[in-house]
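Good day; I would like, with your permission, to put a structural problem before you. A protein sequence and the C-alpha cells that stand for its backbone fold form the material at issue. The record follows directly beneath this note:
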Amino acid sequence: MTANHPAISQSKLRTVVIDAGHGGFDPGNLGSFSKEKDVALKIALKVGEYINKYIKGVKVIYTRKDDRFIDLKERAEIANKNNADLFISIHCNSVEGPAAKRAYGTETWVMGLHAQNRNFPEVAKKENAAILLEDNYKDNYEGFDPESPESHIIFSLFQNAYRENSTLFAKKIEDQFKFRVGRKSRGVKEAGFVVLWKAGMPSVLIETGFLTYPPEERYLNSEEGQVYIASGIFRAFRDYKNEIEALN
C-alpha cells in the first residue's frame, strides 16, 4: 500500500457480507454459454466457505445464496443492518465489439472518482443499470438515473470515510490475482457504484474476469478457476484482517 492510502485501524473484523451480483430475472453480463449471476454466486459461496473453514470468529453473511433478484440498495442495507465490517460484491465483466476478442483480466473497484477517468466507466454504467429492473428506483435512489451522464458524474463524486481501507483491501485482492492466482490484473479502480453507495463499511466490487473472452469464460466456469479466484479473495481477506487488527 502506498503512503497515500494508509490503513485505518479497526478493533476487530467480525462480520463480512458477501454479495453475488445480479440474480433471478437479472442475469448480468452474458458469455457464449454462461451468465454472470451464476458464476458470481458460485465464487461468492466458495469465498464464504473458506472464511468459515479457516478463520475463526468471523461471521459470514450472504446477500443471496440462490438464484434470486435483490435490489441494489437492499444489498448494502443487509451489510448495514448486520453491522458488517467489510462488504464484498462479486461480479463478472464483459465488453462488446472487437474488444471482446482481447479484453480480459480482473479489476477491483472502490467507491470514488479516478482523477484520470473523466468519462464514467462503462462497467459502472452496466452494473448500475440493474436498478432499472427495480420498482420506484428514482425514489429509492434519490433521483439517480443510470441513463443520464450528468447523474453519473454527480454520483461518482461521492466520497466516504472508508476509502482508504477499501483501497487497501482492493489492492490485496489484485495482488493475489496477479502474483498467486496467475491472472492478468487490470488494477484497482474507482467509480460510483450504486451497490457500494450506502455501505457503511469498507467495500469493494470485484470483476473476476470477462465472460466475453472465450478462454476466460471457460476458466471462470471451471471448478479449478472458481476455486483459484475464490482462494485469492479469501487470502486477501485474511491478510487485510490481520493488517488492520495489528494496528491496534
